[in-house]
């Protein structure tokens, strides 16, 4: 629940991009509803071909937007942003890797008036972490290091799925990437906006590919391309 030491918030807008997560989406949304904050929940069904659409119809009190085909996480976030009504915007993945019980820590720097943007780091302490893939961790570390070199930030986890923005910042973002390139693109853009950026430790329960994990080495190559593109060339 929100603590007495932080300012009240009218509404938290939670954007949930989802693609083929029928096994998890209902539980994720239930956890979001129980986060302790008044929530506007915007779910973008990104062309799911499993039973995700049926699962969403059974959940009350959410806004559902749909893509007719799979376009990617970045495209889903762009679709949702014009519908945002809250004071703060939080990106929530549609699986159980990221825990909405971490919302208090994620939101506190913004609600205390210290931050405009907050990243939830899987590598900066926080709650329990499932032990999984060394090469994924190394890849994330190298991408974050390269991104930091060009943004002059000192993030520990640029690729995190938990990114939080004030509504004012979220509405100023001009985003182009469709897939997971959203992460390095938005990092490059907020780094140029002279914002107060904070990072807090979060828990993390990573999935194996057999459990539905989607990101792969090709997305790592794309992330490297986006780091170069949005820091050195596309600076609009």
Automatic annotation (TrEMBL):
Query: Which superkingdom is the protein from?
Result: Bacteria
Q: Which CDD domains match?
A: DPM_DPG-synthase_like (cd04179)
Query: Which Pfam family would be a valid example here?
Result: Glycos_transf_2
Signal peptide interval: none
Glycosyltransferase 2-like domain span: 13-166
**What PANTHER family does UniProt report for this protein, alphabetically?**
RFBJ PROTEIN, UNDECAPRENYL-PHOSPHATE 4-DEOXY-4-FORMAMIDO-L-ARABINOSE TRANSFERASE-RELATED
Q: What's the name of the protein?
A: Glycosyltransferase family 2 protein
Q: Which organism is it from?
A: Geomonas subterranea
